[in-house]
Amino acid sequence: MDEKESEGSRYRTVARLGEIPEGEGRAYVVAGRLIAVFHVDGRYFAIDDTCPHAGASLAGGRLEGRVVYCPWHAWRFSIEDGLWMDNPRSNIRTGCYRVRVVGEEIQVAVPEDDSAATGSACPGTGPEGDDRRH
Predict the structure, then answer these.
(1) pLDDT tens digit string along 64-114?
(2) 131: burial class by Cβ within 10 Å (0-12, 13-18, 19+)?
(3) Which partner for 85 in 23, 76, 89, 130 could form a disulfide, CB atoms 3.0-4.6 Å apart?
C-alpha cells in the first residue's frame, strides 16, 4: 500500500510487523534508495543505510538505545535524526525518513523526486500507526 503525502513524499511498505526484531535494523531498497529501518523500544525509525564516511551499511551496525554504530569505523549516528553523534556541531548526518505502521505493514515516507531526505528529527512510530514525535 502506497499513499501520497503533501510534503512530496510517498509512504512505501518495507516490511511487516515482526520482521524486524526489537533492537535490530534491516536494510531495504525503497524507490531506489538504501534505507535502514530500526526497531527500538517498540517504535520504528528510518535513516539512510549508507554511512557518509566510508559507505558501510548502518543497518548491520550495533545499536545502543537510539544510536547506531557504523560497523566499519564505529561512527555513531542517531536513528532519530541521522546526526553524527561523535561531532554533532559538524552537521554531518544521514537522511532520515518518517515511519508509520498501517495494519501489519511498516511504511517509510520517501521523497518522490531526487531530493534528500529531511535533515530534521523524523518521528518514529509505534504499532498503533501514529507518527509520534519524541
Answers:
(1) 999 999 999 999 999 999 999 998 788 889 999 999 999 999 999 999 876
(2) middle
(3) 76
